[in-house]
């Protein structure tokens, strides 16, 4: 039965994203009804009207187009969750060069600067002096985030300062990014404490980077890109209180299957694993060509999902040049391709792989002094679009054998113990240990071995992995020495609940 849109809204507004997803699978009419509902429900006015009236919101969105300012934190989460968090602030991430424009807008809208003051940190009483102090630190290549207390949710490399403004009990915070290595707002967001807050509202789009985990499974995975800090616990606890389950690690299947949202892969802003909502343009506004909030600039950013032995890592390499209007966040494969392109080359022999570029920018700037700089963002983004469409190098055949065998084995374990919590199943860190060890072993053998997996629960309900490796007799001595001399075998049993046994094949 076809219901009027208002009736759908009355019903759908109380359904979770998971419920709406399930309902949309019933038939085409249901899918269209859910799509139409989201068009009406996912509007920036719904989350920003708490802070700005209609005219202020219009001006703010034009500023987003001009400066590339991103809304993130609880407000961006609220946009997709369709739930307001009354105690939350509005977090605005912007390149430090444009913080003055955002602050001028807030002051003109009646907001008052509230300097941050503790024993370790004392901001100037007026915003102009506070901004000047930030500029001086940048000149001397100092990072402010190490000196800020109480901003655990924001403490990541690349934040130069946080400026707070208040009006009628509402707080807006400008998080200024940049500094010596030129990280963009997106760079900082990719270093957030966990995946639940990796959502943005830009001028052109609202995008959630891990929507299935965040809104369907209500899970937030800890980002291990930065070493553990105790001040990251309170913000994680805040989202746990709001209903998200905080996980230190993902499961083995999610790691081994590259098609899952947490599988080791290249990711792109706005890719099919994202939840991307196009936003309507501001009425009676004619965008100019040099705005940093243009959609093609935003969608040219990328990142990598990686698995370390300590957990999940979200990584992006920073790329900037004087001929680009701002820095970009790039996944390693894209970053490496860009570095080899003559148009974008620079002297970076001392560059820190994975941390990004910027080492040669001062030299580039010296060469360009006195010359008119022609920005090449359009050519840069076209190049990235072309590279992104190219196929990746195929995985080594033996490595693929190990990966696929492990993947199928852990899927079997999931089927055998469907009621066991994912945290009690083999984790991604355990799978990584076994994957790396088996790859080394398989490379030593003249032919692919037969791997047999057996799973069992211990008295605590934890699932153990037992691997039988069938080895030809002629190879058994060499492989036995390999296993006995490899400390990982003991570690796998002690820390990751993995037993490895050799089975001699008769020849």
From TrEMBL:
Residue intervals of the F-box domain: 1-41
Taxonomy, superkingdom: Eukaryota
InterPro entries, per the entry: F-box_dom (IPR001810)
Entry-linked PROSITE patterns: FBOX
Name listed for the protein in its UniProt record: F-box domain-containing protein
């Amino acid at each position: 039965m076809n219901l009027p849109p208002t009736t759908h809204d009355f019903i759908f507004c109380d359904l979770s994203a998971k419920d709406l997803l399930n309902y949309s699978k019933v038939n085409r009419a249901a899918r269209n009804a859910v799509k139409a509902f989201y068009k009406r429900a996912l509007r920036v006015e719904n989350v920003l009207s708490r802070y700005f009236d209609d005219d202020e919101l219009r001006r703010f969105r034009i500023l987003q187009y001009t400066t590339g300012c991103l809304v993130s934190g609880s407000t961006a989460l609220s946009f997709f969750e369709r739930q307001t968090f009354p105690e939350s602030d509005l977090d605005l991430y912007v390149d430090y060069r444009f913080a003055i424009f955002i602050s001028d807008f807030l002051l003109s809208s009646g907001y008052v600067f509230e300097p941050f003051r503790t024993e370790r940190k004392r901001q100037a009483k007026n915003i102009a002096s506070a901004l000047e102090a930030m500029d001086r630190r940048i000149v001397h290549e100092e990072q402010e985030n190490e000196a800020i207390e109480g901003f655990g949710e924001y403490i990541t490399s690349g934040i130069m300062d946080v400026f707070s403004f208040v009006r009628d009990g509402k707080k807006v915070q400008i998080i200024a990014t940049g500094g010596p290595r030129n990280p963009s707002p997106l760079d900082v967001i990719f270093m957030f404490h966990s995946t639940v807050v990796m959502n943005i509202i830009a001028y052109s789009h609202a995008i959630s980077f891990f929507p299935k985990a965040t809104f369907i499974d209500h899970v937030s995975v800890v980002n291990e890109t930065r070493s553990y800090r105790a001040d990251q616990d309170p913000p994680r606890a805040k989202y746990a209180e709001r209903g998200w389950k905080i996980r230190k690690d993902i499961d083995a299947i999610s790691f081994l299957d590259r098609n899952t949202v947490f599988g080791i892969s290249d990711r792109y802003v706005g890719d099919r694993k994202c939840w991307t909502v196009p936003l309507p343009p501001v009425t009676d506004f004619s965008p100019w060509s040099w705005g940093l909030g243009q959609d093609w600039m935003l969608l040219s950013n990328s990142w990598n999902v990686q698995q370390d032995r300590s957990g999940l890592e979200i990584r992006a390499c920073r790329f900037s040049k004087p001929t680009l209007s701002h820095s970009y966040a790039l996944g390693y494969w894209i970053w490496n391709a860009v570095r080899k392109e003559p148009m974008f080359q620079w002297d970076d022999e001392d560059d820190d792989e994975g941390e990004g570029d910027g080492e040669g920018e001062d030299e580039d700037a010296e060469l360009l002094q006195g010359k008119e700089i022609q920005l090449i963002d359009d050519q840069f983004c076209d190049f990235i679009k072309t590279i992104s469409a190219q196929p990746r190098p195929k995985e080594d055949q033996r490595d693929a054998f190990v990966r696929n065998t492990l993947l199928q084995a852990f899927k079997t374990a999931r089927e055998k113990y469907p009621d066991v919590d994912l945290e009690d199943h083999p984790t991604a860190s355990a799978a990584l240990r076994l994957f790396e060890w088996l790859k080394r072993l398989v490379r030593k053998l003249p032919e692919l071995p037969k791997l047999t997996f057996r799973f069992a629960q211990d008295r605590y309900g934890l699932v153990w992995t037992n691997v039988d490796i069938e080895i030809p007799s002629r190879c058994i001595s060499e492989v036995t020495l390999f296993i006995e001399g490899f400390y990982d075998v003991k570690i796998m049993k002690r820390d990751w609940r993995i037993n490895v046994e050799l089975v001699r094949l008769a020849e």
